[in-house]
Each structure stands twice: as C-alpha cells, then as structure tokens.
Design goal:
Elements (H helix, E strand, L loop, with lengths): L3 H25 L5 H19 L7 H23 L6 H9 L4 H20 L1 H8 L6 H28 L20 H19 L7 H13 L2 H4 L3 H4 L2 H8 L17
Helix pairs in contact: 1-2, 1-5, 2-3, 2-5, 2-6, 3-6, 3-7, 5-9, 6-8, 7-8, 8-9
Length: 263
Amino acid sequence: MFEIAPFLLALLVLLAAATLTWAISVPLKNVAIVDVLWGLLFVLAGLTYALTVDLAGPRTTFVLILLGLWSVRLSLHIGVRSWGHGEDRRYQAIRVRNEPHFAAKSLYLVFWLQAALASIISLPLLGAIASPAAINWLDYFGAALWLIGVLFEAGGDWQLTRFKSDPANQQQVMDRGLWRYTRHPNYFGDFCVWWGFFLIALAAGAWWALPGPIVMSVLLLRVSGVTLLERNIGERRPAYQEYVRCTNAFFPGPRRSSGDRFV
C-alpha cells in the first residue's frame, strides 16, 4: 500500500536540497549545477523512505546499494564533465527566455521542478523499501535490467568522454562502441535503470509505483532528453544528420544504410 507520509516527507527533503543548491547557484550565475544534484536527490529520497516507513522490508539494503551506485556515478560524471565550462547552453536558453529576474524564477522553474519530478520518479524506491513481501524471481529480473542500464549509461559516458578528449575528433560525430547502436546509450541506460527499479517494486506488490518510470521515460524521450538535445544539433553539426539516418534514436539496434528512423 502506498505510504503517503514518507512520500511527503521525502518531497520536503528534496525541495530543501533543491533550495540550498539554488542559493549556491545564484552567486555563481550557473543553474546547471542542478544536474549534479539530480542523481543525489534520489539518494535523499531513498534514505528518507528507509528511515520513515513503518517497517523497512527485505529489499531496503539491496535497493539502497543499487541506488547509491547509480546516483553517485552519475553525479560525479556530470560534475567532472561540467567543471570549468560554465552554464550549459540548455540553461542559457532558459535564462534568456525568462529574463528579467531569472535568478529568482530559477528557484521554481529549475530547482523545485526537478525536486518534484524526482519525487514522482522515486516511487519505485518507496514501493520496494516499504513492502514486507519476500524477494522473488521478479526482483532478479529488475536487478538484471538495472545492470544493463548501468552498463549502457556508464559505458556510453566513458566512451564519449574518451572520444571528446582526442583533439582529432573535434566536430566529428561519435558513432563507435555503444553509440553505433543507439544515438543515446546513456539515456537508454537511465530508462533501463528506472524500469529495473519498477520491476523490483512490482515484485514487492507496489504496482502503484508505475508513474515513476513513465515520467522518467517521457522526460528522456520527449522533454529534456532526446528531443531537446537533437532539436538543432543537425544545424550545428551537419554530419549528425547522416548519423540520424543510420542509427536508432533510443532503443539499440543494428545500423542501417538508409530507411526509416526508429526510436
């Protein structure tokens, strides 16, 4: 059964963390630091659930370990990647659209919004942690899907970092390794991670956690993920258009020489 008190308390914790991060971003004039916070918000949610549910179930330690591995790696990767590069162009565009007084508006437009989204996406964590149901075969399927997701996400990030570190690859399109089979292996990995957490929650009987992975999927496919990143990348990098024709946007698949686009 859905436990509303731990959910609401976790939401307050996430909003508080987002507010603190916003306060740091104002003098820096860089709201992109919210991306480093993103993964850590789920750790805060998971820990809040574990500490506040009536009785933490047998999945608690297991889920928190999986969550910690995913979130810490993601936050460290984003922090290292963005260090010294200033505000990302996505946030620069949001800033321009919402001037004047963007510094104040960014509290709810960027930071509180991400905290609210993270609280919804974290529903599988609550479902898995709060249930006393015994671990069963569906938990192992969920863990396997989580592992596939982490391998795609971490592997894709590592491959792209190595590619960009070579000056000879400037203005080139990364179409090797995992990027040969999907234009966004890191986003696909995130997708698998959260559907994996949902399978674990479902194994615990928490079918009501379904909005979590659905919201994450919509964000990755239609909002802040694939759609936003590819909105004008073909104009900035013409070679990317050929990459689009040959490579699936999201779900991995064999390369093709021509034909229809596939998700």
